[in-house]
Amino acid sequence: MKKLQGNDSFQRINYLYQISKHMAGINPVLSAYYGNLIVNVAKKNVLKIHPDIKRQICKKCRSTLVDGTSAKMKIKNKDKSKCIEWICNTCGTKKVFPADKDKDHRVWLERPEAVEEVIN
After folding, report:
1. I need a surface site. Which of 42, 71, 107, 108 has the fewest CB within 10 A?
2. How confident is the model at residue 4 (pLDDT cuts 50, 70, 90)?
3. Which Gene3D superfamilies does the record cross-reference, listed alphabetically (predicted)?
4. Domain annotation covers residue 97
5. Residue 57 lies in a domain
């Protein structure tokens, strides 16, 4: 049986993400601190953060983006295509993601052709 590299680090990132999301509405500064720890743990162990987690962390202040508490989410129409725009309440940074219904906007890691081998 193969051992997954960085399993302890992935567990730590998961735990820090849960704490950061919980603290987003209570204390945004503490949420940003935990978000910064997530990025630092991933960098130190040369690991990729899952795209779903990465999309919910602000690029500037690193706080967790939760709709209604720490961020605002808007759906916009730009050039005949829909976009989801997240605006961080802490620093005001905007993140825009495509959201067309007909197109496949999944990240490469989420597509079936990206999976080479499944480890149980």
Report:
1. 108
2. low
3. 6.20.50.20
4. yes
5. yes
Continuous segment of H or E residues that includes residue 95: strand 94-98
Q: How many CB atoms lie within 10 A of CB 52?
A: 11
Query: pTM of the prediction?
Result: 0.78
The DSSP line for 30-48 is: HHHHHHHHHHHHHHHTT-P
Domain containing 68: what range? 7-101
Which residues are 81's β-sheet partners? 78
Could you give the CA distance from residue 57 to residue 65 in angstroms, rounded to a whole number?
6
Give yes or no for residue 77 having a pLDDT over 90.
Answer: no
Which of 57, 55, 45 has its CA nearest to residue 16?
57
Domain presence at residue 39: yes
